[in-house]
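During the reporting period the student researcher (J.K.) took over the structure-prediction task from the postdoctoral fellow and processed the backlog of single-chain submissions. One of the processed entries is reproduced below for the supervisory committee.
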Amino acid sequence: MGKSCDLLLGKSLHPDRKQFNLSYLIAERYNRWAKYEEDMLSWNWTLPTHVSEFINKHISLEDKTVAEIGIGSGLLSKQHGGSDWDGYDISWRMCELSKPYYKSVTILDIVKKPLPQKYDFIVLCGVFAEGLLDATAIDNIIESLNEGGQILTTFPCFKNYKNRSGWNDQNKLEEVLRSEPYYTWDDPQDPNPKYNEILLWDLKGE
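J.K. obtained the following structure tokens:
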């Protein structure tokens, strides 16, 4: 995301991710990112808006328990009205910033362990990307899902990250809905268009 917010802190596709120190590097990067929300808004980061619209159009969250993993400063919750959601993030600073916008916030690394309870709906907005999450988190996300629950993810379209991250090799989740690619942010260091797509998943066999 440009020189000032370089997130390429390690290889997100590292085969020993759970033993590698990438989680620490990510947490420290966000803990020290003093102007996170100011920067995101200045880059016209619109993915939370698109995710909120996607949920409103395709998914009913009435009477469902909802968790968001990778909450950042709470931009999606502020956009969608997720004050009854539980929020999780690897960064203590992001949890502090987002506290007003969630029912609860918890510091947690989803690569290392599942959520402390199961949910009907789990959303990850802007979390699967270079230097952040990859397919090593799938098992813990699934373990955090109630039977019949659904998972919503976003993926950058640039350089086919979804395939390179290992998601195309997993066989536990079934894609049920996909958005068209959305132009989601401006990078002053890179003129190439930045697109993301939104995907909704069911557990296979349900």
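The committee noted the following: The two ends are 37 Å apart (CA to CA).
J.K. will present the remaining backlog at the next meeting.
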